[in-house]
Amino acid sequence: MRQIVNALGRALPEYIEGYGIVRPFNGAFATLPAMTRQAPKVKRMQPGECKLADSLEMVFKRIPVTDGMTLSFHHHLRNGDHVVNMVLAVAAKLGLKNLKVALSSVFPVHAPMVDHMQAGVVTGLDTNYMSGSVAAAISRGVLAQPVILRTHGGRARAIECGQLKIDVAFIAAPTADDYGNLNGISGPAACGSLGYAYPDAEYADWVVAVTDHLVEYPLTPVSIPQTRVDYIVTVESIGDPQGIVSGTTQITRDPVGLKIAETTAKVIQAAGLIKDGFSFQTGAGGASLAAAHYVRQMMEKAGVTGSFVLGGITGYMVEMLAKGLFRRLIDVQGFDLAAVRSLAENPNHMEVGADFYASPFNNGCAVNKLDAVVLGATEFDIDFNVNVVTGSDGVIMGGSGGHSDAAAGAKVTIVVANLLRGRLPVIMDKVLTATTPGETVDVLVTERGVAVNPRRTDLKEKLAAAGLPLRDAIELKALAEKIAGVPNKIATDERIIAVIEYRDGTIIDVVRKV
Amino acid sequence: MRQIVNALGRALPEYIEGYGIVRPFNGAFATLPAMTRQAPKVKRMQPGECKLADSLEMVFKRIPVTDGMTLSFHHHLRNGDHVVNMVLAVAAKLGLKNLKVALSSVFPVHAPMVDHMQAGVVTGLDTNYMSGSVAAAISRGVLAQPVILRTHGGRARAIECGQLKIDVAFIAAPTADDYGNLNGISGPAACGSLGYAYPDAEYADWVVAVTDHLVEYPLTPVSIPQTRVDYIVTVESIGDPQGIVSGTTQITRDPVGLKIAETTAKVIQAAGLIKDGFSFQTGAGGASLAAAHYVRQMMEKAGVTGSFVLGGITGYMVEMLAKGLFRRLIDVQGFDLAAVRSLAENPNHMEVGADFYASPFNNGCAVNKLDAVVLGATEFDIDFNVNVVTGSDGVIMGGSGGHSDAAAGAKVTIVVANLLRGRLPVIMDKVLTATTPGETVDVLVTERGVAVNPRRTDLKEKLAAAGLPLRDAIELKALAEKIAGVPNKIATDERIIAVIEYRDGTIIDVVRKV
């Protein structure tokens, strides 16, 4: 197979079996759409027709679900999800083969999928993030076809643009009415926003709601409307609340993490962003929350009112909204009970779909309006490229999620990382797997100094003026290697186990079997 | 031209110049969709790009708007609308010709459109209702091509199914942010729901928001999202509040109207519908409100809680929601200030698009869930067909709006009419213009008796048991003719000035020039 080289210098085959023709990554903003939106078949539902189905099996037969179809799922029930396993068990029971699973993120709870992969029930996977035994099994090569790893915005784009064609979307619905209006804010498995399921509901050929909480028509608010739902199946339980939402998320107590967080806040301040209208995204981890905490103190001190917080929402953001530090929360996913309650009660807490959040191919997604985003990294390189897909051992242990999307959209993108991860340097010449391109990353904050992307001379001047401890990325790399030595190169074979799509649908990298 | 005859016995040409091939009406539930959804071109909006345009003229040039395009508009600003006239004035100034206007309803304020029609700027019109000088001019034959008259649900269907292809949607937006999130609940021209603009925003090739109230990003709630809006133009005023919403809508004091209203409520009661979960639609006119008032008294007496009120919303419905008589309002259009305020404040007051309200071609619209609807008629015939398009003189003075949609969806469809309209019988052998087919109409209530559609023997038995004054439609017709005589037949020529599409896209009738 002839190889091509993309804009990050990654060698790729021209064609990947099980994926198709490779369009090489060509720069974060270079690829323009040249297609029309996915156009599913138009439906008709006569007055009096009933959408309630007795069982998943009945729905499989009515549609009918056949070999080779793509079944999609959202991940809002996270590690408490019962629906994916339930649906795939029916598929296995009915003897279906060669199904492709399009699940926005894969969690440890989805371990039974490995058996279905081994049995040939599931032979394809399309996801934005994966962890647990499915990720491990795929890294070992359980799937003949490579898994397709997308970003949260890229998945929405792929669905809307017809590149990820969904035959049947199974939508876990914490609350539903009998005509298919769905939301996530109440019911025993309440999860908050259903944002990642919006594109599936809009563009799948068939939409099946799976619920354990059927209420009187009409349900309000409507996250997914009746006009797109074909069937409703009631089951005993769609998910385990313990695994769906955490009680509260805590700010880190690790002194190194706190130092990095404080420096991060100072970077945001030095960039001149702590002013009225400030908009912000950060993760739900303890270190990210710590950064939010320092930013909040600065906002309070300066008396500024921010515009919005975006992305995955935690109780900490809910508190900032309630205290008037920000005017809005834009919520594509809630992480804790406080986020679920706030979405239900506060009209300034907006629920949006993955397309609104982060798709690069529409009339403007919310990440485009971000001032600052704070992101993590498992590897970082001197060209500012980030790896959040593979660990230092080359095994898949994550995925972009909204990483590349927010990085591309925000005015200032900050990656935070300890210089060492375990006993290995985080910073290197070339990340093993490129996930987020360096041109969209502005600043690296470590406990030993701050590196600014050479493209951002404007920002570098501001941070220098503010007295931040600036270093070249190459210096930071040398510092890390001085402590931990130069890591051995990972040996991989030729077999591609994952294709990493950048948010615009070009291929930024592939993962080869270790 | 060979003629064909549709299921109501109406003779139609096989092909109508300016419309296309005629698909004859074949029964209200007989036509199934056989197409995919309209698939507009996918867009990209880079971070930092600005959507604000200095003027409509600039937007016309940037898109660019060219001869022969279809420009769409919603009618939520009713007789206070400034936007249609503003946009067409720019089109005229730029020398554009042969534009088609797709405006969900035409009001007297749109009179300047007649000049644009005479000048050849506008040569096509697609609407659901029209009144004022545009309707009069079209009846006189100002347009070479026939106007296409649709239902509210049918317009949504035609847009979603690609039969009404919109090049540019101009959306009058009472409030907008700088990235194109729009709603109708605040601003000087607040009109409430923007439901009729939803399909336009979703499927037009270009979407231009026109606003006089630009607020900080992000606007909540979002009726039309940023992901679909290309440009935002700020103008001095999008509409005159006096013409947009009425202060309050009053119940009729006419004793005949009150009698009909009371009988109507008794029909609903006798049909066994006054029980928990009752759902209801009625118009905003004084007689319809009176029917709602009698229904309300029955509900209060029986202590029942209704499910929802649907359609155009008035202060009277708002009051019933506030008092707990209904659990929800499903609002595609607000008629008065109370409706606007309630939509802004009450989470049980839902805003929905025209597709959710009434499109026959999706996975189930809200009219399908209606128990009872009360509708008007300008003519009614012994086969229960209704005319709401032409007056007794054959001149266009209305349109279906949601008439045919609600009639098709509701369990019990009641048409109310005085036996005489002016000095002419309302009931006749054949309505001049068939708008809503008799198979979807169950009961006619007049001041001289109640006629039940012979198809509904079940209903007839119930109404008889309740002691309602039942009469055959033929008897009522005879009664009317005894008072007023047999009206002269209207003389029309061959020229077709309007094509009346049933909600499913088949042709139920045409209007010929008087």
TrEMBL record, chains A, B:
InterPro entries: Citrate_lyase_asu (IPR006472), NagB/RpiA_transferase-like (IPR037171)
Catalytic activity: citrate = oxaloacetate + acetate; citrate + acetyl-CoA = (3S)-citryl-CoA + acetate
The entry's keywords: Cytoplasm, Lyase, Transferase
Pfam families in the record: CitF
Protein's UniProt keywords contain Cell inner membrane: no
Record's subcellular location: Cytoplasm
Highest taxon of the lineage: Bacteria
Protein name per its UniProtKB record: Citrate lyase alpha chain
Taxonomic path: Bacteria, Bacillati, Bacillota, Negativicutes, Selenomonadales
